[in-house]
What we know:
- The chain is an alpha+beta fold.
- Helices cover 19% and strands 23% of the residues.
- It contains 6 helices and 11 strands.
- Strands 5, 6, 7, 8, 9, 10 and 11 form a 7-stranded mixed beta sheet that branches.
- A hairpin with a 2-residue loop joins strand 7 and strand 8 (284-285).
- Helix 1 (82-96) runs antiparallel to helix 2 (105-114) and helix 3 (205-211) crosses helix 5.
Amino acid sequence: MTRTPPPAAPPPGRRAVLAALTGAALGAAGCTGRTAPGAHPSRTTTPTHASQEPPAGTGSPSPSPALPRTTPWRPTSAEVQPAAKLRAVRLVEAIGAWAAGQGGAAAARARVAALGLPTALVGQAGPLLPTADQTALQVVDAQYGGILSRSASVLVVCRQWTRRAGTVSAGGTTVDVRLSRSASGWTVDALHPAQPGPAARFLAPDVRSVLSDDRIVLPPAAVADLRSGRVHTSVARAMLGLARTYRLEVSVVRSGHPLDVFGTSRPSDHPRGRAFDVWRIDGHAVVDPATSRGLIERFMRDAAAAGSYNVGGPVLLSGGSAGQFFSDATHHDHVHIGFRT
């Protein structure tokens, strides 16, 4: 999100290593902070592996490959509106993960109804509800696309594994979950899954470098954004520059973000491929109150030095060009880095 105016599978051995959340299909769509072995919790550790390969044949049939074990997601105590994030995450988990025999739209509607949410939301799920025998889903992060007193956009970034006829495939998406607030709490009004578009035949060298840089952690929708060729090279150059000093974990690049600055009619830089958001720096979540403010400040200033005209985060910095730095409730949980071209 800016002040002025989310699927391709991740490359093997690199980013497809977050464990995914199967609990939604089993009635455990809520969020906890425990870390399952091999899983990627939302805020604390780095992923280590995806699914296990079946054992080598010994003359008897090999078992089907296992879906990854998963870690439920939980917001920190420092969230602006933790209930809004929980509501959005629970819905994504409920639609996007199910046990064997519980696939399909009808079963998804039953899971959504159990949350007390409109079952019509299932029809808006898009890539979140693939045709598969069984799925596992891991929420990587949930960040604000916008937060007002009675409405919100929560961007639920997730990885998803699907089993079809004994074959496990990795993918994922980012979903812009729109919510409204009443006296009874937050409810979900609409889902807008990422639409990265097809992969381009040729990519700029800087974009290819980003896709192969292990210090830049990208979720599936962001990988697809870069592969689409619709992200400006200014974004790629800034990522590469920052990665020389920091390990940055990106939440959103182009797709899966509101088209306009939330609550306004001003176009956001994200859908135009001119911005990216970072939710974790050197293993420290931006929203975590234990994360050094000095680290976040240095990162924001380095982002400005990398060419960003519009750097937002939880800390309001002085200096820079007019309006170059900003802070508000929406950017309490991530650093936004935008470019003019």
